């Protein structure tokens, strides 16, 4: 593999050298060079994950496939049936697939093809698009600019989307970072994000119905939300059994809408074992994130999942993460709290949780619990600072 490092740092993998690129800490940054890495026999230690995270999947997840057609048409019986499937999936592990969602197959196909235009760019061009420290938008190779162990075997390209903008924000982003040649690509992703946002609103309505609260409650709450779109590219890996494309984690966001190609690799930890999500070209995979778990007072689950890599085949996935507007308080509706008697999580904002995952904590399976503890500590410190001192 080919980790380029600064000359003052030695690597376990025998790497090429380049000047330090991380101006912040001057320690040098590993570079995920896919043209070289596939030729290497041994996997560099930076990419090796602990055995506990690598346990093989045993079977396929039996998640419901929810037909949205009847709900979109306003058919009451079919809506009730869809809501019941959503309720049972979300009370258990938080994963389900949706079909007849109204997103054109040709649009999904186009955005998958466009992924290659980004990841097949020359390495130096991709590095010039790298996401800034503490930020989320841009290119990342194995997250090597942020971490030095348990590196994910993937490249990502991420950008923001907000539903109520009057400007085509995605097109503008593509044009500004990649130039005019990427205007068409930008439009494909703009349309895809608009469609994902539309589907997310349908799902929020179904979630409201399934929880027996005002059906528009979550839909209205997320109307001015903020989203992150991420393209994932997982190159083939000779040592695929030692590494992971995305390590075990719960999404810190509220709702995730994912489309994976036919290679497959998404796995969910449910009923005490890893289970594969079968790829379906016509379906979108939906899962509940930590913020929605808090918004449902813990009734709906955000569950651990990961992406394994393939020995022979490259894999692509498109992920749309939905979150509330940054400063909006994350608090479950009163109806749910009354039913459950107690609040499971304190109030927080998405902006606090986002900052936690970008500055203080590497998102994993315990992000929400760790964040709540951190928040409580911050609040204690703040209140002790504001108390009059007796010395
Ligand atoms: C708030 C976020 C943190 C991550 C990007 C967004 C949405 C999901 C998060 C992530 C994908 C969860 C898995 C681990 C992670 C580090 C990754 O492998 O990409 C996460 C993201 C991140 O911090 O980049
Ligand atoms: O690529 C996948 O299938 C999973 C990616 C994922 O879980 C994520 O990006 O949060
Ligand atoms: Fe995820």
From TrEMBL:
Its cofactor is L-ascorbate. Keywords: Iron, Metal-binding, Oxidoreductase. InterPro entries: DIOX_N, IPNS-like_FE2OG_OXY, IPNS-like_sf, Iron_ascorbate_oxido_reductase, Oxoglu/Fe-dep_dioxygenase_dom. GO terms for biological process: gibberellin biosynthetic process. It catalyses: gibberellin A12 + 2 2-oxoglutarate + 3 O2 + H(+) = gibberellin A9 + 2 succinate + 3 CO2 + 2 H2O. Pfam families: 2OG-FeII_Oxy, DIOX_N. Gene3D superfamilies: B-lactam Antibiotic, Isopenicillin N Synthase, Chain. Pathway: Plant hormone biosynthesis; gibberellin biosynthesis; Hormone biosynthesis. Residues 225-324 form the Fe2OG dioxygenase domain. The keyword Iron applies. GO terms for molecular function: gibberellin 20-oxidase activity; metal ion binding. Belongs to the iron/ascorbate-dependent oxidoreductase family. GA20OX subfamily. This is Fe2OG dioxygenase domain-containing protein.
């Amino acid at each position: 593999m080919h980790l380029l490092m600064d000359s003052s740092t030695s690597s376990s993998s025998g790497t090429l050298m380049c000047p330090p690129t991380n101006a912040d800490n001057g320690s040098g940054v590993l570079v995920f060079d896919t043209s070289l890495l596939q030729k290497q026999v041994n996997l560099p230690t930076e990419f090796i994950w602990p055995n506990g995270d690598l346990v093989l999947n045993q079977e396929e997840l039996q998640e419901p496939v929810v037909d949205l057609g009847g709900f979109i048409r306003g058919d009451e019986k079919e809506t009730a049936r869809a809501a019941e499937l959503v309720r049972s999936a979300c009370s258990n592990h938080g994963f389900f697939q949706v079909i007849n969602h109204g997103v054109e197959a040709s649009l999904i196909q186009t955005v998958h093809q466009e992924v290659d235009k980004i990841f097949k760019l020359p390495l130096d061009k991709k590095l010039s698009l790298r996401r800034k420290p503490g930020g989320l938008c841009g290119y990342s190779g194995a997250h090597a600019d942020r971490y030095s162990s348990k590196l994910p075997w993937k490249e990502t390209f991420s950008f923001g989307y907000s539903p109520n903008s009057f400007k085509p924000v995605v097109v503008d982003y593509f044009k500004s970072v990649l130039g005019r040649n990427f205007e068409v690509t930008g439009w494909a992703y703009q349309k895809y994000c608009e469609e994902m946002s539309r589907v997310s609103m349908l799902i929020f309505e179904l979630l409201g119905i399934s929880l027996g609260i005002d059906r528009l409650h979550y839909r209205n709450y997320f109307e001015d939300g903020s989203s992150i779109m991420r393209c994932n590219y997982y190159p083939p890996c000779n040592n695929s059994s030692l590494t992971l494309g995305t390590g075990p984690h719960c999404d810190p966001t509220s709702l995730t809408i994912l489309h994976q190609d036919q290679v497959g690799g998404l796995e969910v930890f449910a009923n005490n074992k890893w289970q594969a999500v079968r790829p379906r070209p016509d379906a979108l995979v939906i899962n509940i994130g930590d913020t929605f778990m808090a918004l449902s007072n813990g009734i709906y689950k955000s569950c651990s999942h990961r992406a394994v890599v393939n020995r022979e085949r490259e894999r692509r996935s498109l992920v749309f993460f939905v979150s509330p507007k940054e400063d909006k308080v994350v608090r479950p509706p009163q109806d749910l709290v009354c039913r459950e008697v107690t609040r499971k999580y304190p109030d927080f904002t998405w902006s606090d949780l986002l900052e936690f995952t970008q500055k203080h904590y590497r998102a994993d399976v315990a992000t929400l619990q760790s964040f709540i503890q951190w928040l409580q500590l911050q609040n204690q410190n703040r209140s002790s600072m504001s108390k009059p001192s007796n010395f």
